[in-house]
Amino acid sequence: MATESEHKPIDQLTKEEVLARMKAAFKEGDMVAVGILAKAHVRLQHEEEKTARDAVLKVLAKLELEVKDRFDTLSAELVDSKILDGVDGIWYAWDFGDKLTSIRLMKKAGTANVSTGAAKSSYIPVNISTKELLAREIDGVKIADTVYITEETKATIDKVEYVLHAGMTYERAYAFSSNGGWRNRVVMAIRRKAGVV
């Protein structure tokens, strides 16, 4: 006696029911049916994964709003305290994997080329190692931990286009690639930041 699932259209089957039909079709040697059911199984698998991703993104979106509210409250307190007078913005980054935090207070004028890495100045030799410059502090913050990329930026390195996300520090940018052009750009940005060129 046929079960209810055996009469269902393929697009109404659950993943388990599709697998059961596939097994039966394979046993009967009906490879056409196996192929059709395999496609249905892949579709259901993708739908299941998308549902799981959407659920995670929904939770993250709610959490983002809660965290943003807390940062907004703290930022408003800092602005009200007048400590940020003359500052146009704040970039704060915390990479949980590297356990590194960095912060940068910004002024609109004169920061675009350095922060995005778009500067194309020629190489200027300096008798100070990049490692030493990265360790230097400006206003109590190491250059290494200072944000270099302040907004999402595209960069082509070795003929490959990369998207560099906001919050990348000078140290991470330096370690990102050993390509000569890229390394020269970052080193010169570090030297400008340190005020040695």
Average pLDDT taken over every residue: 82
Number of H- or I-type helical stretches: 6
Strand order of the largest sheet: 1-2
- Described by the principal axes of the CA atoms, the overall outline is elongated
Q: Report helical residue fraction.
A: 40-55%
Gyration radius, rounded = 27 Å
What is the string of helix and strand elements?
Answer: HHEEHHEEEEHH
Distance between the termini: 86 Å
How many discrete domains?
Answer: 2
Poorly predicted runs of 5 or more residues: 109-121
By DSSP, the count of extended strands is 6
Largest sheet: 2 strands, antiparallel
β-sheet strand percentage? 5-15%
By secondary-structure content and strand pairing, the structural class works out as: alpha+beta
Descriptive account of the structure:
With 197 residues, the chain is an alpha+beta fold. The protein has two domains: 1-85; 87-197, no CATH class. It has six helices and six strands, in the order ααββααββββαα. The strands form three sheets. Strands 1-2 form a two-stranded antiparallel ribbon. Helix 1 packs antiparallel against helix 2 (31-80) and helix 5 (170-176) runs antiparallel to helix 6. The longest helix is centred in the N-terminal third of the chain and has 50 residues, at 31-80.
Write the layout of secondary structure elements.
Elements: H1 15-28, H2 31-80, E1 89-95, E2 100-106, H3 112-116, H4 130-135, E3 137-138, E4 141-142, E5 153-157, E6 160-164, H5 170-176, H6 180-194
Antiparallel strand pairs: 1-2, 3-4, 5-6
